[in-house]
Protein: NAD-dependent epimerase/dehydratase domain-containing protein
Amino acid sequence: GKVLLTGGTGFIASHVLDCLLDHGFDVVVTVRSHEKGQRIVNSIDEALRQHVSFAIVGDFVKEGAFDEAVMTDPPFDYVVHTASPYQMHWEDPQRDCLDPAIKGISGILTSIYRHAPAVKRVVFTSSSAAILNPPNHPKVYDESSWCRVTQEEAMDPVHTYRASKTYAEQCAWDFHKSHPHDFSIATINNTYTFGPIPRSLDSLDRLNTSNHRIRDLVQGGMRGGVAPTAPVFTFVDVRDVALAHVRAMTAPEAAGKRFYVVGGFFSNHRLAGIVRRRFPQLEGQLPPAEEDAKDDFPADHWAFDNSRSKEVLGLQYTELEKSVVDTVESILAFEAAG
Ligand code: NDP
Structure:
């Protein structure tokens, strides 16, 4: 089978790419420049490299931005759309986050609808941000929950990202309802994701947002004290997220479903404790040891129900300790390679 994977430079996409190649797919990744595409192809084992190529898709906001990329011979069987801005500082929330998130998914669905009739399924990387509904948390979250964020709140940079994911996912389901077509949709609503950094990364300064706190711990950024964990206390390992995408692409029962992909709980104190125990050489970079006991994990934290992801996608979630250790090792290896 042949897959179009958008946002190839991304942290999650880099693992989706590895997982797709492991499963024997041919993959075309979309990137914003030739240089980025070449870095990705070069990061792949030589034996598998013939199965990867890239297409340049510039500005998502342009009408028909994906038209050329979706038309190939042989045609694509599947599309995985991961590309979307994920950070927390926006100069212009509309231009820098909401537009690319929403026009990205609506644009690619439109291009598939018009030009790629062989596509059987589209998997969209949504987020737990489209599920969680602060401050009105239920006792247990599952796929039935939707974030309710107003257009007005969306313009406040604190809320822009979760609004972008919520509106983008809504847009995917609305498109699907209103356009008669042969492809189905599934969404992965993963929570805060840790895991090994992409081999194609060019600088730790450009590391994806959810790995920042582990990078900061390793680099001494919390020497003076553990940063507050809030507002996120759930994590998932990126390799589980990648497998979720691949299974959601092919499992017949995954069609038309969202999947809340969450592996467990964490706090920054627990991250520090794990790094201290497993990487004694980093002690000098870490917060004072007595801080580990002051865990800020809230006693009344809501629970999560990830049973659909286990039943339909067969996920077996990676433990926090393994996820953190593998992330730290990948950061140390990156630093050592200079
Ligand atoms: P990264 O920042 O590593 O990747 C983001 C990707 O999106 C990059 O490939 C980036 O391309 C691309 N991108 C961003 N903005 C644009 C734009 N305006 N036009 C074109 N491409 C763009 O983040 P992650 O891998 O963590 O995130 C990937 C997806 O997963 C996102 O949809 C995110 O919302 C979602 N997600 C992430 C979670 C996490 O904790 N990491 C949790 C839940 C969901 P470039 O390199 O060229 O900038």
User: Anything to note?
Assistant: Residues 2-199+235-263+303-308 form a domain with the Rossmann fold fold (CATH 3.40.50.720). The two ends are 37 Å apart (CA to CA). The mean pLDDT is 97.
